[in-house]
Design a protein that fits this description.
With 518 residues, the protein is of the alpha/beta class. Helices cover 30% and strands 19% of the residues. It is globular and about 75 Å long. The chain starts with 5 loop residues before the first helix and ends in a 6-residue tail after the last helix.
């Protein structure tokens, strides 16, 4: 029970600099010192004990990015209670799914999400306690939910350290994005949180006096671990932006004298699309940390915004095969060591193009990809090693689905990163109907192998995205290429003619009946 936990490591940081700004809420201008954050977290810990919560219990947190969210999960962790960080954009069935998977004894929600909770109230577990935080604009709605107002309860809670010693390693739950199905609840342990945060701090040249601009959602590992983790474990100041704004980005960086920024998905492309503004030349940002920076955007981004270092990495919340680009090679997310393969055993392995099943050799082992060959990333599992362990998901079936055996050697186990979905259909946001499908095909043929060309093409007005700018594919998958389910123009690739042709209801019937071969 004496292992180092995130709360204990944070306590050591607070002792060194209690009055230094820890978290800054951009929306309100509120500044929390390290001592403030610690005392508010202590108040949460005492509140949890007063509610009868015990080690191993779960509390769902359903609120936007703000310092309060950090104090809630950190305070719960001080007494061994796990927070389930639920995406505040979820509604109805997706929200219910995430709550049900975590099986929480209580749920804390932001006042701005009262209506969303009301929509699912009848389906929530009756024994689950409801607590609301934030400005109460609709007292009647909170009353109809039977929810208690958390803020006055915390105001009366002790701010001294709670008398408790942690014995378990589980810290909190973070959900996958749910781009291809319902979100899965990934288990994050204290050692994994430390590894991810330390990985970023030491690899990308961060310093204790850095100020990080964090516009990523705190229900996501990039925002809550890679970002906030620099504050909790290394004493950096983190500016929390509740929602990414390309227009305000550089103005905010100048205002708060930020020296590091976080990005994910298409943020860098959105910034490049903005008109030049004076703040671009006034900021002090020297390093950008994140993943998904495309090669075509990378060089333009660093040149225009004078970014000295890009810290690109790859790693799902739950994976044991993270990669890091330590030399700034444009377009790379990391490397696999050929010198020390046993120290960090990861590799790309071959898969069947259609089924994505692992290809095996005569000995029944997976086959390593050659340079430039596509494949899936796997990492050997060793539950005794913090770098190689795989803690999986709350759902054991989902955990088993991500594990393969006899990958590196006979009888071993490995985490399989996957390739979600197939390159069967592409949806393009084309509100002005300016896309030329012939030009698209010619460009795609240059960039993709023949088997990866989209067989179907859909031109749509907008694309639904997650809070981290990943495209939500589930609705698109459900509608498929049936022209009867959408008013969007849909095309199919006529391989014999070598072009995309409009998909009519009749041609759709021919394809589904097998009369038309693709």
């Amino acid at each position: 029970c004496n292992h180092s936990s995130i709360p204990s490591l944070f306590s050591a940081v607070v002792a060194l600099q209690p009055h230094k700004p820890a978290l800054i809420d951009e929306a309100t201008g509120e500044v929390w010192s390290f001592k403030d954050l610690q005392e508010r977290s202590h108040a949460v810990a005492h509140w949890a004990l007063q509610q009868g919560l015990v080690e191993g219990d779960v509390v769902a947190l359903y609120l936007g990015s703000c310092p309060m969210l950090v104090s809630l999960w950190l305070g719960l962790a001080m007494v061994g209670v796990e927070a389930a960080l639920i995406n505040h954009n979820l509604r109805q069935s997706s929200l219910l799914h995430c709550v049900a998977v975590a099986q929480p004894r209580a749920m804390v929600y932001g006042a701005e999400l009262t209506r969303a909770v009301l929509e699912v109230k009848a389906s929530l577990e009756p024994s689950m306690g409801l607590f609301c935080t934030g400005l109460q604009e609709d007292q009647r709605a909170r009353s109809s939910l039977g929810a208690d107002h958390l803020d006055p309860m915390l105001a009366c809670s002790p701010t001294a350290a709670p008398p408790y010693t942690l014995c378990k390693d589980r810290l909190f739950l973070i959900y996958t994005s749910g781009t291809t199905g319902m979100p899965k609840a990934a288990i994050v342990v204290h050692s994994r949180y430390y590894r991810i945060a330390a990985f970023g701090f030491h690899s990308f040249g961060l310093r204790g006096d850095d100020v990080i601009y964090n516009c990523l959602p705190l229900y996501h590992s990039a925002g809550s671990i890679m970002g906030v983790g620099q504050c909790l474990l290394f004493g950096l100041t983190v500016v929390i932006k509740r929602k990414f704004s390309a227009r305000c980005f550089w103005d905010d960086c100048v205002t708060y004298k930020c020296t590091a920024i976080q990005y994910i998905g298409e943020i860098c492309r959105y910034l490049l699309a903005q008109e030049v503004r004076p703040s671009e030349a006034k900021h002090q940002v020297r390093v950008a940390i994140g993943n998904g920076l495309r090669p075509t955007v990378w060089e333009k981004f660093v040149k225009r915004f004078r970014i000295r270092r890009v810290g690109e990495f790859y790693g799902a919340t739950e994976c044991n095969c993270s990669l890091i680009n330590i030399d700034g090679k444009v377009g790379a997310c990391g490397f696999s060591s050929r010198i020390l393969p046993n120290f960090y055993p990861i590799r790309l392995v071959r898969v069947q193009e259609d089924s994505m099943e692992l290809i095996r050799n005569a000995q029944g082992l997976c086959v390593r990809c050659t340079p430039g060959e596509p494949g899936v990333l796997v990492g050997r599992i060793d539950q005794t090693d913090p770098l190689r362990r795989f803690d999986g998901y709350v759902d054991s079936e989902s955990t088993a689905h991500k594990i393969a055996h006899s990958v590196f050697t006979a009888g071993d186990s490995a985490y399989v990163s996957g390739v979600e979905g197939k390159a069967g259909m592409a949806a393009i946001a084309d509100a002005d109907r300016q896309v030329d499908v012939g030009n698209f095909l010619r460009a795609a043929e240059k960039a993709l192998p023949s088997y990866a060309l989209p067989v179907f093409l859909r031109l749509t007005s907008t694309l639904d995205t997650t809070g981290t700018f990943k495209i939500l594919k589930m609705r698109l998958r459900q509608e498929g290429f049936d022209p009867g389910l959408s008013t969007d123009p849909i095309f199919y690739l006529n391989s014999r003619a070598g072009c995309y042709e409009a998909l009519s209801p009749r041609r759709y019937c021919d394809i589904t009946a097998g009369r038309e071969r693709l």
